[in-house]
């Protein structure tokens, strides 16, 4: 049976293998939030983001992300996973998306980084 120290040592030895992507590029779309995978209930007006499952599983709940598009920027909080997103793609709340582009565009190519 492992001691607490041995268990923690094992966890922190393995964690670097699952390093969080600190920045990326991809498509950004928007969604109508509700109860997210992090356990928070949000609304359309909250500055939030859902990230691809590939990077969500690295422990991003509650982390801040800067998202940039054509000279505009918004800071959002990771609250959900986006199973349909590609590795660098994100899904923004309607209010966050509208700070970057008109929602009628539907999909934009963004750059993002974890703060």
TrEMBL record:
Pfam families: DPBB_1. Keywords: Signal. This is RlpA-like protein double-psi beta-barrel domain-containing protein. Residues 1-21 form the signal peptide. InterPro entries: Expansin_CellWall, RlpA-like_DPBB, RlpA-like_sf. It comes from the Eukaryota. It comes from Tetrapyrgos nigripes. Residues 65-112 form the RlpA-like protein double-psi beta-barrel domain. PANTHER family: PTHR31836, SRCR DOMAIN-CONTAINING PROTEIN-RELATED.
